[in-house]
Structure of BMC domain-containing protein:
Amino acid sequence: MKLLKTLGYIEVKGLSNAIVAADKMLKTADVELKSVENTRGSGWVTVTVVGDVAAVGVSIATAKEAMGEDYVSSTVLANPAEGIDKLGKTDLLLNKANKEVKEEKNKDTEKAEVKQDKEEKTTEAKVNKVTKNKKNKK
């Protein structure tokens, strides 16, 4: 069984506060940002970081202090149970980035399909013209 790094969660009011909290945590200690998630209630957002126990603890404490009255809750899970790290599936930043990538791919696909349709129509018109010319020669 593979041991996970320590997980740290802090819940704050609003996305802008979550970004500030994440910035404070990343600058304070050697932690890695795992996700920024909408909690689907009261405009709260959860920021998740991973790292060693001490680093995660310090980063959470620093963010908590920085948030003041916009702080909601936090926890540090040392050696979390298997699967705990996969519970968050609504990462706000990744969802937005993925949505933008999908939209860009859709635009590219639509452009390619339009181009292919034009090429097929052009080819079909040329074939029809050649066929018509052959019939006229006979």
Q: What stands out?
A: The mean pLDDT is 82.
